[in-house]
Specification:
It is a single chain. With 318 residues, the protein is of the alpha+beta class. Among the domains are: 3-135, no CATH class; 250-314. It has eleven helices and eight strands. The strands form two sheets. It has a four-stranded antiparallel sheet with strand order 1-2-3-4, with helices on one face. Strands 5-6-7-8 form a four-stranded mixed sheet. Helix 2 crosses helix 5 (61-76), helix 2 (22-31) crosses helix 7 (98-117) and helix 5 crosses helix 7 (98-117). The radius of gyration is 23 Å and the shape is flat. The chain starts with a helix and ends with a strand. The model has no long low-confidence stretch (mean pLDDT 93). Bound molecules: zinc ion.
Length: 318
């Protein structure tokens, strides 16, 4: 979700229950996405540190608390707060107390929940597990929701009648929730329509959101994860398009066993672990070429990061 939605959701919930610490919650809500400027550079130092990225370490239950607390601490400093208040010409003073730390964490939890609902997911249980959890309902940033959020934030900023502000906040929550309901409904529509076409070689099916709530990326695979079928399904026209099939691994030249050994080695390399972690489905293409394997990992669904990574493994002849 976009930064403004992450600000608005805790702010609106806290406003609805009459809390006077709305801003602390909103700051907690936005704090996690400052990972793009606070921790992402650490991840660039080495591929082993791939958890230090946007939607990485800060998007876990434990480190969300650390992040929202630090963020609240910084924003509650008088110099910082007055500096920003002067720029935006509004009083954004917050306190740093046990209560506001708790409320900021509440904001961070709404952030985790919203990002969990989007595609690709977040490592909620880090450091116990690096598995990402995703409900795959909203796209990672929904353009329409973002535009509505900007308008609502503007209404909250302007010095207009309180009733307009309340109406704008209510309208935003209604739009956000109803979009989620429509997307869940369309997703199950897409899955049900595609299930009928599921043939013997494919027995698993998943759907992934796109910017268009009526278009879903469908991935079918078999239990061995050796063949994949990717398509787009439009629930408005009940039409499937852009069908691609993949074999995994795809082995060119060389023997199957030698390729399997090389892939096993490649799988342990940090650049590969990083690529897999950032991918929906990382499939393998192994090419044998004079004593070495060029092993390419590629994501069959569009990924926001690099789409391919190639590593070389020398054949072990011992
Ligand atoms: Zn986020």
């Amino acid at each position: 979700m976009d930064l403004i939605t992450h600000f608005l959701v805790p702010y609106i919930i806290l406003a609805a229950i009459g809390s006077k610490n709305k801003l602390a919650g909103a700051f907690g809500g936005i704090s996690l996405d400052f990972d793009t400027i606070s921790v992402a550079f650490i991840g660039l130092l080495s591929p082993q540190l791939f958890i230090f990225t946007h939607r990485g370490i800060t998007h876990s239950f434990i480190f969300a608390l650390v992040t929202s607390t630090i963020f609240l601490y910084i924003l509650s400093r008088k110099q910082v707060n007055e500096f920003i208040s002067n720029i935006i010409k509004r009083d954004i003073s917050v306190e740093f107390t046990k209560t506001t730390i708790g409320i900021a964490y509440f904001g961070a939890l709404t952030h985790l929940f919203l990002d969990f609902l989007t595609t690709k997911g977040i490592p909620l249980l880090y450091p116990f597990s690096i598995t990402k959890y995703a409900a795959e309902i909203y796209p990672s940033v929904d353009i329409i929701i973002t535009i509505v959020a900007v308008v609502v934030l503007l209404v909250l900023y302007l010095r207009v009648n309180q009733n307009y502000k309340k109406a704008a906040m209510a309208a935003f929550m209604i739009i956000l929730v109803s979009f989620g309901c429509i997307m869940s409904y369309e997703k199950s529509n897409a899955l049900n329509s595609e299930k009928i076409t599921l043939t013997g070689s494919y027995n698993q099916i998943s759907a992934y959101p796109t910017q268009d709530m009526f278009t879903w990326n469908i991935v079918e695979s078999n239990a061995q994860n050796s063949s994949y079928r990717v398509s787009e399904y439009n629930t408005w026209q009940n039409q499937e398009s852009n069908i691609r099939t993949y074999k995994n691994p795809l082995i060119e030249n060389g023997s199957y066993n030698s390729a399997q050994n090389a892939i096993k080695i490649a799988n342990t390399l940090p650049v590969v672990e990083k690529f897999k972690w950032n991918s929906y489905y990382a499939l393998v293409d192994a090419k044998y070429n004079s004593n070495k394997w060029d092993i390419t990992y590629y994501d069959i669904l569009n990924s926001w990061t690099e789409n391919k990574v190639t590593v070389t493994v020398f054949e072990n002849r011992s």
